Amino acid sequence: MSMIINESLRLYPPLVSIARKVGRVVRLGNLIVPANVELFIPSLAIHHEPQLWGQDAHLFKPERFSEGIAKATENNIAAFLPFGLGPRNCVGMDYATTEAKIALSMILQRYPFTLSPGYVHSPVQYITVRPHHGVQVILHSL
Ligand code: HEM
User: Fold this and answer.
1) Domains in the chain: boundaries
2) Which alpha helices (H) appear in 26-80, and where do they start and end?
3) 5 C-alpha vs ligand 1 centroid, how far in Å?
4) What value, to the nearest 5°, has the Cα angle with vertex 69 and ends 66 and 71?
5) Which residue has a Cα nearest atom 35 of ligand 1?
6) Reported pTM
7) Cβ proximity of 41 and 17 under 8 Å
8) What is the residue with the minimal CA distance to atom 4 of ligand 1?
9) DSSP 8-state symbol, 33
């Protein structure tokens, strides 16, 4: 289930970017960044970057994560950052992923479900990334 959650967060990170303010002058590769510059790290673009994820970067392929995040990103830790990175990353990360796993398990123990033909794929950003028209599913009996 982690694979599916990770791949969903890769393609549709609820927060499309994270911000950092540079405290003191730093060198980033070839760049010298002065103090007080604000940097926006575009998680959404990074998650869709073919150089990092391959030519199929736009496809939903949970098996990318079958051997964990380090393997999926080839140890490029900044390639996957749905919860940010570093000492100020998301404090709710474990809570949110555990909740998603529990909720999905509770549903799947009772009903297999399939996507409704009425579903229209239209992710939008309105504070967070979300499905514009909701996600209609059909519950089946076990
Ligand atoms: C799928 C669900 C969630 C996602 C994708 C998410 C994502 C993020 C991201 C990207 C950041 C910025 C991290 C950074 O700047 O490096 C953040 C920060 C934060 N998140 Fe979440 N979050 C989620 C759920 C939650 C939940 C459930 C809580 C609380 C129970 C929470 C509390 C926080 C707090 C307090 C911060 C600020 C941390 C700080 O600045 O030190 N988040 N989150």
Assistant:
1) 2-110, 111-142
2) 43-47, 50-53, 69-72
3) 16
4) 70
5) 91
6) 0.94
7) yes
8) 83
9) E
